[in-house]
Amino acid sequence: MSEDKLERIHELIKILNDAAKAYYVDGAEIMTNYEYDSLYDELESLENETGIHLSDSPTSNVGYEVLSELPKERHATPMLSLSKTKERAELEDFLGDKKGLLSWKMDGLTIVLTYEGGELTKAVTRGNGETGEIVTPNARTFKNIPLKIGFKGELVIRGEAVILYSDFEKINEDIPELDAKYKNPRNLCSGSVRQLDNRITKERNVRFYAFGVVSAEGKDFNNSVKNRQDWLKSLGFEIVEYAEVTRADISATVTLFEHRVKDNDFPSDGLVLEYDDIEYGGSLGRTAKFPRNAIAFKWKDETAETVLREIEWSASRTGLINPIAVFDPVELEGTTVSRASLHNISYIKSMKLGTGDRITVFKANMIIPQIAGNLTASGKLCLPEVCPVCKGEVSLKDDNGVETLYCINSDCPAKHIKSFVHFVSRDAMNIEGLSEATIEKFIQHRFLQKLHDLYCLEKYADEISQIEGFGEKSCQNLLMAVEKSRHTVLHRLVYGLGIPGFGSANCKLVTGVFDTPQKLLDVTEEDLTALEGIGDVLARDFCSYFRNKENRSEFLKLADILDIEVVQDKKSDILEGKTFVITGSLNGFENRNELKELIESLGGKVSGSVSKNTAYLINNDASSTSAKNKKARELGVDIITEEDFRHLVNQSDLM
Questions:
Q1: What is the tens place of the pLDDT at every residue in 277-297?
Q2: Rounded CA gap, 500 and 523, in Å?
Q3: How far lies 549's CA from each of 413, 553, 562, in Å?
């Protein structure tokens, strides 16, 4: 026996166990399923060839040891993995002359449920196959799980907890930081089910799909897995979809399942074939790791060879610099693919990537583009020495063996997404269509460095149209909104700068007196403190902001780009001393702020709540039973509509 083979066995065991720990315990992904399966097959082959099976080999162990604060419990019946194949001929040989059930192999977290007296009494995760974690309170919040069933005997079943792609996408939409988004539904599901606070589990819309019965007190299924599944369905469980197959039609049935993968809302990483004959399947026994009554079929991933052209680096608000592989476009599973995530620096190093390398790519579970292998393995990739956004210094961090790259410049635009979000908000420049997520994408694509870059987006129109979620129409709508915002008033621009302590009201106060950009730049602390409501601290912060050279330069660029209307603080004093409250929907005004600004320009004030000092409550639905309407009636406050307000101020003469 070659010492090289034994050394390789040790190496593969460590690599695979590290990957399993990262995946099952830490919720991290340091290699693709494709790469894991390839290394696993290599290890299994070497073990069979040499006859050496080490105790810590993943081919001997069912799973990684469970580590959490959740209570543990040993399974009454070990939960074994399934042997696997990617060959349809092996499925035919496995089935022989028997009937079988072919079902989805869902990619979530396996759960064992126990019912006693018709009520759910316990839920335990698969864990390492021998011992799992008790997650009963969390399982009770699963979206589709029966808490009570008609069967009163003891029932123990197995199934898969999953999060649908549609729910996964909604959850990720609410997370603006790209590096904080969940990588896949499986990891999110695992983290959700194993929460110590089951309120979080409930929010994640976890679903349970039953696929097997461990025991059912006194129940006879007439020796049929199909009958068993149909019975579970009759009790109210959603079961994993199956199809009855024979040797003659199993290959065609696999094809039917395969064609549906891309349209499935649930994550699946293959199929499971099980003998319908329960007694026959049980008589076959088990190996140390696998039961012999079922086999898993994993999709033979369609791979394509291409050339890695570059690694695209993008920074997020946390400073994490994310690597994306850009390669010559190839056709995979019916779509054109040219980009794939590279996860982290450790992943890049393990793949020995370098620009110009010939690589193979595939779609994990026929959906997510991944790099399968590196044919040339040059390892000649140089990590960026500066941040791709700000050109500042970067730092390589090692977190439990996983290396990542970070920008350490506190002034990096990628770390100041909130300033852009504030600048485009409704009370500031009011640029519709520029969400926080969109701004983050634009910063990563280097369209935005400074605030004034928002008014230069037109030169990136072609590139914006190609960004996921955009198109020509969306891009044009955005550019039109940017153009519309050029015509503004000075207090909106100043508010958009985000000067500490200067909300909309203070900005209006200051710009009502110092009504040109140059006057604002020249204002002194003494000038400001002379205004009612502006104290020493506010005056100091305002002047300090404009003493900063970069801030002054940026403000002047914006003032030059924008069409700033000079307005008087008040059109008249006809509403002097009157306080209004606005509620409900509006018809003639674009929004409440527009109506508020009109009231203030006429000398009035706007409050958020009805009190004895309120002169009028403006509500187009005067008969509403809302809290504000009730309060107004109690206090004798007049409730008027928009039209009543127009007559009150004789707006036709004022506009």
A1: 999 999 998 887 788 999 999
A2: 17
A3: 17, 6, 20
> What value does the mean pLDDT take over residues 81-99?
91
Instruction: Tell me the C-alpha distance between 186 and 268, whole Å.
Output: 10
Q: Residue 361, SS3?
A: strand
Across-strand partners of 161?
109, 208
Q: For 545, phi and psi rounded to 5 degrees?
A: -60, -45
**Set 105, 415, 596, 628: catalytic member:** 105
Q: Which domains does the chain have, with CATH numbers?
A: 3-50 (1.10.287.610), 72-252+264-297 (3.30.470.30), 304-407 (2.40.50.140), 413-485 (1.10.150.20), 488-565 (1.10.150.20), 579-654 (3.40.50.10190)
- CB-based contacts of 95, cutoff 8 Å, min separation 6: 245, 246, 247, 250, 273, 275
| Phi, psi dihedrals of residue 356, rounded to the nearest 5° | 95, -10
Which range among 23-32, 179-188, 498-507 shows the weakest confidence by mean pLDDT? 23-32
Helix (H, G, I), strand (E, B) or coil at 39: helix
Q: What per-residue confidence (pLDDT) applies to 207? A: 93
Nearest to 369 by CA among 419, 335, 411, 403: 335
C-alpha distance from residue 568 to each of 311, 483, 601 (Å): 54, 24, 8
Measured distance CA(109)–CA(116) in Å, rounded? 23
At residue 111, the pLDDT reads 94
List the beta strands (DSSP E) in 134-282.
155-162, 207-216, 242-245, 268-275
Interior angle at CA 160, CA 155 and CA 164, nearest 5? 135
244 touches 250 (CB < 8 A): no
DSSP state of 384: P
Angle of helix 88-95 versus helix 250-260 axis, rounded to 10? 130
Q: For residues 149 and 236, what is the distance between their CA atoms, to the nearest angstrom?
A: 7
Task: Tell which residue, 560, 578, 566, 553, has the closest CA to residue 513.
Answer: 566
Average pLDDT, the chain: 85
Contact status, residue 391 vs residue 321, Cβ threshold 8 Å: no
Residue 122 a catalytic site member: no
Q: Left, alpha or beta for 636 (phi > 0: left; psi -120 to 50: alpha)?
A: left
Structure-token pair, residue 177: 């930081």
And the tokens for 296? 């898993």
Q: What is the mean predicted confidence (pLDDT) over 58-62?
A: 66
Residues 123 and 125: their CA atoms lie apart, in Å, by 7
